[in-house]
């Protein structure tokens, strides 16, 4: 058992027999009354985020032991997404919903899968923060087409996903994309 004052971002806790990931927390010391901890918790079963407030004076929480393991995306079928462990070559199948922005995933992509160590259950899977993509289609940008300097246009990348890119990006260009925000990062020369 741990107390609420031990909460950190990225920590997993058990609450009402469900596993939650601490997305954000703030220790608040009001001028009057006891201190408390305001948290944002993401339910790893359905993805919902909820706000929860804990008293910083001895309120108990139940931390969950998790382990992150590297897996490689091999293929997808009706059963889900098939991944292979990078060291043991063990194969697992997870639902697409566990991967945020899964439409940016390419064949052979390395993912980091977070497991509940006691139940040996996959909780989430994360793409690398920045990945390289090729633009397969985008409308040509016309110089002087906009009033602002940082205008964006939609572009389809090699996985079929659509991301917003600057006007100077053309079909066939290689770009880097931030998988957390789906934003254009830079052009690869």
What does this structure look like?
- This protein has 189 residues and is an all-beta fold.
- The protein has strands spanning 2-3, 12-15, 18-28, 36-43, 49-55, 60-63, 66-77, 80-85, 91-94, 110-116, 121-126, 130-138, 152-157, 162-166, 174-178, 183-188.
- The chain has three domains: 2-63, Roll (SH3 type barrels); 66-126, Nucleic acid-binding proteins (OB fold (Dihydrolipoamide Acetyltransferase, E2P)), CATH 2.40.50.140; 130-188, OB fold (Dihydrolipoamide Acetyltransferase, E2P) (Beta Barrel).
- The chain is built from no helices and 16 strands.
- It is flat and about 60 Å long.
In short:
With 189 residues, this protein is mainly beta.
List the helices and strands and how they pair.
Layout: E1 2-3, E2 12-15, E3 18-28, E4 36-43, E5 49-55, E6 60-63, E7 66-77, E8 80-85, E9 91-94, E10 110-116, E11 121-126, E12 130-138, E13 152-157, E14 162-166, E15 174-178, E16 183-188
Antiparallel strand pairs: 1-6, 2-3, 2-6, 3-4, 4-5, 7-8, 7-10, 8-9, 10-11, 12-13, 12-15, 13-14, 15-16
Keywords summarizing the entry:
mainly beta; single chain; OB fold (Dihydrolipoamide Acetyltransferase, E2P); 3 domains; 189 residues; 16 strands; 6-stranded antiparallel β-sheet; SH3 type barrels
Give the end-to-end Cα distance, rounded to a whole number of Å: 52 Å
Please give the radius of gyration in angstroms.
21 Å
Main sheet strand line-up: 1-6-2-3-4-5
* Name of the CATH class of the largest domain: Mainly Beta
* Total strand segments: 16
Please count the helical segments.
0
């Amino acid at each position: 058992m741990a107390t609420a004052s031990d909460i950190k971002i990225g920590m997993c806790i058990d609450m009402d027999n469900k596993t939650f990931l601490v997305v954000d927390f703030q220790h608040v010391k009001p001028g009057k009354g006891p201190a408390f901890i305001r948290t944002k918790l993401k339910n790893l079963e359905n993805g919902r985020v909820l706000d929860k407030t804990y008293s910083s004076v001895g309120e108990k929480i139940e931390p969950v032991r998790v382990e992150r393991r590297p897996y490689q995306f091999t293929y997808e079928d009706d059963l889900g997404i098939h991944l292979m462990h990078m060291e043991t070559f063990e194969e697992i199948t997870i639902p697409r919903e566990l991967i945020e922005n899964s439409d940016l995933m390419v064949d052979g992509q390395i993912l980091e899968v977070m497991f509940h160590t006691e139940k040996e259950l996959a909780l989430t899977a994360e793409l690398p923060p920045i990945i390289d993509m090729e633009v397969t289609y985008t409308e040509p940008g016309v110089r002087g087409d906009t009033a602002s300097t940082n205008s964006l246009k939609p572009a389809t990348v090699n996985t079929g996903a659509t991301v917003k890119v600057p006007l100077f990006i053309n079909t066939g260009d290689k770009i880097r994309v931030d998988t957390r925000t789906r934003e254009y990062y830079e052009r690869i020369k």
